[in-house]
Amino acid sequence: xxxxxxxxxxxxxxxxxxxxxxxxxxxxxxxxxxxxxxxxxxxxxxxxxxxxxxxxxxxxxxxxxxxxxxxxxxxxxxxxxxxxxxxxxxxxxxxxxxxxxxxxxxxxxxxxxxxxxxxxxxxxxxxxxxxxxxxxxxxxxxxxxxxxxxxxxxxxxxxxxxxxxxxxxxxxxxxxxxxxxxxxxxxxxxxxxxxxxxxxxxxxxxxxxxxxxxxxxxxxxxxxxxxxxxxxxxxxxxxxxxxxxxxxxxxxxxxxxxxxxxxxxxxxxxxxxxxxxxxxxxxxxxxxxxxxxxxxxxxxxxxxxxxxxx
Length: 310
Ligand code: RIB
Description:
Blueprint: E1 4-8, E2 12-19, E3 33-39, H1 41-51, E4 55-62, H2 66-77, E5 85-87, E6 93-101, E7 107-114, H3 121-132, E8 136-139, H4 145-157, E9 161-164, H5 174-177, E10 182-183, H6 187-194, H7 201-214, E11 218-222, E12 228-231, E13 236-239, H8 252-265, H9 270-284, H10 297-306
Parallel strand pairs: 1-4, 1-8, 2-6, 4-5, 8-9, 9-10, 10-11
Antiparallel strand pairs: 2-3, 6-7, 11-12, 12-13
Helix pairs in contact: 1-8, 3-4, 6-7, 8-9, 9-10
């Protein structure tokens, strides 16, 4: 098992419908399937990292309601420590309304953060020691941003390496960029943050240089079917992903980030860690749902063995 890592982020219950096409405004579409299950970018990433074999401290916030049990039951089933989960007495557990086009596997998501948008100083204080004693902190932008900024600050001040997944995308202050070791936007987020369309490798490098100038040390841009663009100030390349039968891409970025975290915590270099993360995400997209789609370490290793070309 690798070094200890903290995943700080959202838990929401995913209410997912599959549909012949995504509705346009004002249209009602008859869906073909409904599933409810654990989700939220933070939780998806934490579970992906844990199932991949990571030594994960999962930090999130729930309400005191039946949706909270969806998180707690999943964590118990997966043997995850629930002692760093906060509870709100006032705000309900968050949820996400997800529509997935069953033909294209494109999705639309409305997320209500609920309790995980109310993480306060007392909550953060209670996990400070866990963060300080981790090798990595992985976080996203799906909790209240002031809390995200505070945990990044704690990590940075204590030499804990910070991975920031920029979803859901929003402006990032310069002071925050300076504390980020590795940034992992998808191509849409990278374009929004840098103003550079990520339509070829040259532009991906320009976007990476934008992040380097802000003080970020390494950049990984997830690029859908094209794979991932990986860059440090010294070198860069595109890692391709094998063609698989895609069923649902919701949470694919989370799968990737969870895999990346576990691989880095095991001492793999950035390129080898991205290869591992690509394998994890490639297995996840062949399944329905978000958290429940995350594969085990054996499944990831089997996929890697079947795809030596990766
Ligand atoms: O990245 C996918 C996740 O985004 C879903 O699980 C949903 O909860 C939304 O937050």
